[in-house]
Amino acid sequence: MAEGFRLICGSDDVVEAGKGFRFTVECYGRQTPAFVIRFRGVVYGYFNECGHVPAELDWMPGEFFDDSKLYLICSIHGALYAPDSGRCLGGRCQGRGLRVLKVREIDGKILLEQER
């Protein structure tokens, strides 16, 4: 594996506009929930915290998309986020989007780019 990257999961673990893959990252000395999803063929990673309050988005483990499979939705507030940017599209996020994680898909693996 390339230096500076951490294995999250296999590419097959994240299906198009389906169940996301949950994992944790260390942030400011604590383990913080995060997830990756696939949207329009590309993998995206985010901290699993609503832009409004630090509540996890998924209504059941890994269920981040709304019924239309076009938006990520906060299970508590109903805030909608763009899957390809984490940008707030409406609801109580009040313009605050999701915090992005740098992820890459290489050789059938989804990797987290580690901060140096």
Q: What order do the helices and strands follow?
A: EEEEEEEEEE
Question: What is the oligomeric state here?
Answer: single chain
Strand content: 35-45%
Helix content: under 10%
Overall geometric form: globular
Count helical runs: 0
CATH topology: Rieske Iron-sulfur Protein
Distance between termini?
A: 16 Å
Query: What Rg do the Cα atoms give?
Result: 13 Å
CATH architecture: 3-layer Sandwich
Order of strands, main sheet, comes to: 2-3-4-8
Mean pLDDT over the residues: 93
Q: What's the number of extended β-strand segments?
A: 10
Structural class: mainly beta
Weakly predicted, low-confidence segments: none
CATH superfamily: Rieske [2Fe-2S] iron-sulphur domain
CATH class: Mainly Beta
Major β-sheet annotation: 4 strands, antiparallel
Report on the structure:
With 116 residues, the protein is mainly beta. It has a single domain (5-113), classed as Rieske [2Fe-2S] iron-sulphur domain (Rieske Iron-sulfur Protein). It is 0% helix and 41% strand. The chain contains no helices and ten strands. Strand 9 and strand 10 form a beta hairpin.
What's the structural blueprint in terms of helices and strands?
Layout: E1 5-10, E2 21-27, E3 30-39, E4 42-47, E5 72-73, E6 80-81, E7 88-90, E8 100-101, E9 103-106, E10 109-113
Antiparallel strand pairs: 1-10, 2-3, 3-4, 4-8, 5-6, 6-7, 9-10
What is shown here, in short?
The chain has 116 residues and is mainly beta. It has strands at residues 5-10, 21-27, 30-39, 42-47, 72-73, 80-81, 88-90, 100-101, 103-106, 109-113.
